[in-house]
């Protein structure tokens, strides 16, 4: 039972971080700390940008909670692990997949969800100013962006808009 509780704490922390990332992105990064985040809306010169400082800011509570809870592996440890996992996913999808700062993953995905992440983030980057941007979330993509990426057909299923070919027995 303890494993289920710990897993639930990790998942809750991960979900909580999506809200924190959205709130921070909308009201802090596009607010009073635009001076750091602006570098992310401009062409990058070099390997790093001021916006990378946010990764350290998000790592602080994760490390702090992991250290506080490490002795007895209490809820703080598992919450810190959830924050760290969110940070890892954020790095892999945002920096590796979407912005290709590290070229480990393909440019495009055949999976609709990953394409939704990429497209909604590029919509966010259409605005190069502090005001007027949209799509501040990261792991959760708002339904209004779903129409931007059509589902891919899988396998040998027929497309609903194309009539099926007649088989020789139907002719």
Describe the structure.
The protein is an all-alpha fold and 171 residues long. It has a domain at 2-108. It has five helices and no strands. The protein has helices spanning 2-32, 34-37, 53-69, 75-98, 112-124. The longest helix is centred in the N-terminal third of the chain and has 31 residues, at 2-32. The chain is globular, with a radius of gyration of 21 Å.
A few lines on this structure:
With 171 residues, the protein is mostly helical. It is built from 5 helices and no strands.
What is the molecular shape?
globular
What's the helix-strand series? HHHHH
Q: What is the number of beta strands?
A: 0
Radius of gyration, whole Å: 21 Å
Structural class: mainly alpha
The residue ranges in which pLDDT falls below 50 over 5 or more consecutive positions are 155-171
Total count of helical runs of at least 4 residues: 5
Taking the sheet with the most strands, its summary is: none
Mean pLDDT: 84
Percent of residues in beta strands: under 5%
Terminus-to-terminus distance: 62 Å
Percent helix: 40-55%
Overview features:
171 residues; mainly alpha; 5 helices; disordered C terminus; single chain
């Amino acid at each position: 039972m303890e494993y289920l509780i710990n897993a639930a704490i990790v998942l809750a922390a991960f979900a909580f971080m999506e809200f924190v990332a959205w709130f921070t992105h909308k009201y802090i990064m596009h607010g009073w700390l635009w001076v750091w985040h602006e570098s992310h809306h401009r062409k990058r010169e070099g390997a790093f940008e001021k916006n990378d400082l946010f990764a350290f800011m998000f790592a602080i509570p994760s490390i702090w909670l992991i250290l506080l809870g490490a002795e007895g592996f209490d809820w703080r440890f598992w919450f810190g692990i959830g924050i760290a996992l969110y940070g890892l996913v954020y790095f892999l999808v945002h920096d590796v997949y979407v912005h290709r700062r590290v070229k480990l993953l393909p440019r495009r995905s055949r999976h609709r969800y990953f394409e939704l992440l990429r497209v909604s983030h590029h919509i966010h980057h259409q605005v190069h100013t502090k005001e007027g941007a949209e799509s501040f979330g990261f792991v959760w993509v708002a339904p209004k962006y779903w129409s931007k990426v059509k589902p891919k057909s899988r396998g040998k299923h027929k497309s609903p808009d194309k009539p099926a070919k007649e088989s020789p027995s139907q002719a």
